[in-house]
Amino acid sequence: MVNSSDPQAATTVVTPPEGRLTTADGKPLAWALARSQARAKRRAFLLVLPLLGFILITFVVPIGQMLQRSFYNAGFPANMPEISQWFAENPRGTDPDDAAWTALANDLLASAEARTIGVVGTRINYDVPGTRSLFTSTGRKVRRGIEPPYREALLEMDEDWGDPRVWSAMREASKPVTANFYLAAVDRTRADDGSIEQVEPRQRIYVMLFMRTFWLSLLITGLTFLLGFPVAHLLATLPMRKSNLLMILVLLPFWTSLLVRTTSWMVLLQQQGVVNDILVWLGVIGGSQRLQMIYNQTGTIIAMTHILLPFMILPLYSVMRTINPSYVRAARSLGATSWTAFRRIYFPQTLPGLGAGALLVFILAVGYYITPALVGGSSGQLISNMIAMHMTDTLNWSMAAALAALLLGSVLILYWLYDRLVGVDNLKLG
Amino acid sequence: MALPTYASPLERVWHYTYLVICGLIFFFLIAPIIVIIPLSFNAEPYFTFTEKMRSFDPDGYSLRWYNSLLTFGMTSADGPRDGRWWADVWANAKWVQAAKNSIIIGFFSTLLATVLGTLAALGLSRPEMPFRRPIMAILISPMIVPLIITATGMFFFYSNPCEILGLFGLPSNCGRLAGTYLGVILAHATLGIPFVIITVTATLVGFDQSLNRAAASLGANPRTTFFRITMPLILPGVISGALFAFVTSFDEVVAVLFIAGPDQQTIPRQMWNGIREQISPAILAVATLLVLFSIALLTTVELLRRRSERIRGLTPQ
Amino acid sequence: MRTTLILSTMLIGFGLAAAAQEVNVVSWGGAYEWSQVEAYNKPFTEKTGIKVNMIAADNPATPLKAQVEANNLTGDVFDIEVSDAIRLCDEGALVEIDPADLPPAPDGTPAIEDFIDGALQDCAVANIFWGTVIAYDTTKFEGEAPSTAADFFDLERFPGQRGLPKTPKRTLYLALIADGVPADEIYDRLGSEEGVNQAFDKLDTIKDSVVWWEAGAQPVQLLADGEVTMATGYNGRFFDAMVAEDKPFGIIWDGQYMDLDMFVIPKDSPNPEAAMEYLKFATSTEQLAEQAKYIAYGPARKSSAGLVGLYQDGETEMGPHMPTNPEYLETAVMDDPEFWADHDAELTERFNSWLAGS
A232 is in which domain, residue-wise? Predict the structure, then answer.
């Protein structure tokens, strides 16, 4: 375990052959040591406890509660109890009978009067787009009066009530615990017979967005490596005084507000911005062919690379500082060219720093929200932006939670990897 | 990095190319931050260097955007700048309100994060701490989990923090934290804690535990030991951790977007509005002030780090 | 320790200060917010002593729905579109407003007769008519200037990027108009699958050249910065830029989309009495007319129309800039709140999928 390397822990198991050692007051030594050990453990733990409790309450519990929404949604059964009951009693494949239509009509009326029909319609609309209005408009009509036979009456109001997809979706929604939001988050849906199928090509967006998020994060990690490696190397090999001075150039962006840096890129990259102005002035492009570098993927990539670059440089630098330059010199003296010496001797020694930096940059990039939202246009949006959209615009919170769960899952896997390879206690800031 | 004497001409060329490349990368790092400073003095509402600015004509520059930071949101901005005018600024100007909020929220969240974080770091650095690694991983996770996920979780939780008590049959409604100062402070403290933990544990790595034992053996009680021995030694680390936590709060916008109410609009929230709506150079004026602020903080942290290394005998060679 | 004490006392002081009489109004930001601050808030605070906090949102209905759903209301009065007002009222989220409580016109006409048709709903009172119109940068088209909705989609004759709002409501109709669908057939067409496909097909022709905006101030900024050469946006914002800031913009009234903005009060808002007082004050004849001095939106009361004259500069006639100008009404698409209350969710979903896929 954690404290196996602890020298004091080792002493407790030492029992001399001639009998038990005792302390001055006559207690067995092993027992006394174990007790003081336990007390020390408890004391250490008590110091951590307040914070641990704080983080659990303000961070872990809220996220857990939010994720619960990804598989739990009681909006339909709570407001449509009778028809939900009917679904529970009759297996899939049963054609709706009179009891079902009566239950549906009763529920619709009750729900319309309680003004919860919108909630119900919204829930079904998640599974069958376009059905919210079926519920709200039928609700309005039902309130004006409805007579049995209910089947004919409802079909008269809207023929979509005969659509098996609506019934299948209601059946799915009648169970509060569902995996459907996860299916939707990977562009899958349940067919009328309950099997899983891909959604129409037009609606397949989430897998594409996840791919885009991972691909862009990978690209940004690669770019930060390309830009960060030479700089870290220079900083690590310069004399301390000079490198400390240059280090400020790395740390200043790190300490500068994210919004400030994003704003600067907006200012620099827009069509009438500084970069385009310089290019026109240099004659690289004509005045009328100014480049579109913002409100698209290019903007997201440039700004995020800049923002995340220090997270690559700092771990690389701290590893490179510890590399003994005499290895490379030895390789050179043994006849290696500078390239070979770099590739075979120097570079492998930087791998721990590279791994730490790359994982950190990738983890942070995957969850980025602010920068893509401001400079990304529509092609530079990442999965976080989709989560935000479902949270604030469409209010499909279960969907937001399912997407969040998938994103969180991938981040936690990477975090676990980071802890295994680098160790969270080796995280350094400046 | 000096070039070895045995370098071939090709290597020399490569060496200078390499230096130029590094120079360009440093330029890439720093230019975007520097470029907004002169632009914030633009007399025109544009984001580029005007003709007049390029020819260093004083008419091309003005303080109008800094002025607008004071006047934006005032009940009556025109009029003599007397006591009443300034009272109006203090009470109504939106950026001034935002600055007040940022400072209040930043101060209290930093206090909370630093106290809890330092205690925990002390515990975590003791060799006998049980489950050290998993606990550390949990405490650092607010820095790793995507902000949007944290913020959405907080959005629901703070709307009704007692909802979870309902599971145990307890009253499940006890008011809300969303839209209150306390809510934003708690959220920001959570986000700042990893930084305190990282900085303080890093300071404690070089901390000689036998100093504590020596103090204890000389008759000091744990309290005296902490305040007379431990605290002075780790203080630089604690202060840098606190500064990190403060900056985190000062720069945070996602949690504010989700849980703050109209009374808790902070500087980043105000900037977010401004950037999405109308990036007038007033935003650049705020940005410039923030850059100066970060330079001041960075300097402090660097001085502290060196001091800490000196006390702990880790002076750079 | 002592400083902590002092600071916590300060904090409590702030909390108390915030608890004094106030009302939180969520509106659309930018020039529109400014016009409301000048015409409603300042006189309101002067008269009643109640402080008004203005909160900007891209579309206030969005935070309103989220706050209602999370049962976490921080706003008191929201300025939203009719379709959202009807939908939220249907769902029981809004306070019902009795027209008899609203102040009558100066000549004594009761409010219920004074407001234009559709301006009074069960839970909402309109303040203005506003149009979504196309504006273009006149310096970019010195030869032939664009004049129709179809020109907006013509990248050959009128090159450059386009600014469009990131919502189906104000994009699909434009695509159909540009495709030759008459204004009065828009909703029939949009109600059918083919019509929606037709609109998206038309949008596809310019998709790569579109910069999408979300806040009402953005299209103005995009045009002013030269980021786009044509953009659709709210007519009052363009007016503000043209008149107050002398921007070289031209406006195409062909196929403008006309809508009403309504004030609503959610149930369980933090300051219900102050909210109702604000709503009554802001929708009175004088205040509505006053707002037209600051921005080119048509007041929702007949009695205010007579009072509308010049812009605050004292020389610009407001008439030709108003979306309600009879000349512009011929080709205008009127908002159909029932249609959008029912179809907004599904069309938004389709729109978002379309937008994300590239």
Answer: 206-426
pLDDT digits (tens, 9 = 90+) for C90-129: 777 899 999 999 999 999 899 999 998 889 998 999 999 9
Residue A186: Cβ within 10 Å count:
16
Chain C environment of B159 (Cβ under 8 Å): 70-72
Report the alpha-carbon distance of residue A306 to residue A299 in Å, rounded: 11
Longest dimension (CA), chain A: 99
Distance CA(A324)–CA(A275), nearest Å, equals 41
CB atoms within 10 A of CB A95: 8
How many whole angstroms separate alpha carbon C319 and alpha carbon C192?
37
DSSP 8-state assignment for residue A346: I
Q: Which of C300, C332, C306 is nearest to C319 (CA)?
A: C306
Tokens of A276: 């385009």
CATH topology of domain C20-129+260-322: D-Maltodextrin-Binding Protein; domain 2 (3.40.190)
Q: Which of A161, A180, A203 is the last residue of a domain?
A: A203
- Distance between CA atoms of A203 and C354, rounded to whole angstroms? 8
Q: How far is C310 from chain B (nearest CA, A)?
A: 22
d(CA C183, CA C174): 10
Which of A116, A270, A377 minimises the CB distance to C212? A377
A138-193, pLDDT tens digit by residue? 888 888 888 888 888 999 888 889 888 889 889 989 988 988 899 989 998 887 77
**What CATH code is assigned to B94-310?**
1.10.3720.10
> Residue C51 CB: number of other CB atoms within 10 A?
18
Contacts of A166 in chain C (CB under 8 A): none
Query: Is residue A142 within 8 angstroms of chain B, CB to CB?
Result: no
Which residues of B fall within a CB distance of 8 Å from A50?
A: 116, 119-120
Q: CA angle B270-B275-B279, nearest 5°?
A: 115
A383 vs A214: CA distance, rounded Å: 9
What chain C residue is nearest to B111 in terms of C-alpha separation? C4
Q: Residue B116 and residue A54: Cα distance in Å, rounded?
A: 9
Q: How many domains does chain A have?
A: 3
Please answer yes or no on whether C18 and B179 come within 8 Å at the CB atom. no
CA-to-CA dists, residue A3 to A9, A37, A290, A371, angstroms: 7, 11, 62, 43
Three-state secondary structure call for residue A296: coil
CA distance B110 to chain C (A): 12
The pTM (predicted TM-score) of the whole model is 0.89
Q: If contacts are CB pairs under 8 Å, which of residues 46-65 in chain C contact chain B?
A: 53, 55-56, 58
Q: What is the pLDDT of residues A317-327, one digit of tens each?
A: 989 998 988 99
A68, A91, A120 - which closes a domain: A68
Pairwise CB contact (< 8 Å): C74 & B262: yes
Q: What is the CA radius of gyration of chain C?
A: 21
Length of chain B: 317
ipTM of the complex: 0.90
Question: Are B176 and C215 inside 8 Å of each other by CB?
Answer: no
Looking at C115-192, list the stretches that DSSP marks H as alpha helix, in order from N- to C-terminal side.
Answer: 149-152, 172-178, 186-190
For chain C, the structural domain boundaries read: 20-129+260-322, 131-258+329-356
Closest CB to C227: pick one of A205, A270, A394.
Answer: A270
Scanning the structure block, which residue is given the tokens 């006559």?
A26
Beta bridge partners of C263: C79, C125
A264 to B26: CB separation less than 8 angstroms, yes or no: no
Is B32 in contact with A388 (Cβ distance < 8 A)? no
User: Whole-angstrom Cα distance, residue B86 to residue B197?
Assistant: 41
- Does residue A212 share a domain with residue A198? no
User: Which numeric CATH code is attached to C131-258+329-356?
Assistant: 3.40.190.10
- Chain C residues in contact with B104 by the CB 8 A cut-off are 10-11, 14
CATH number at A354 reads: 1.10.3720.10
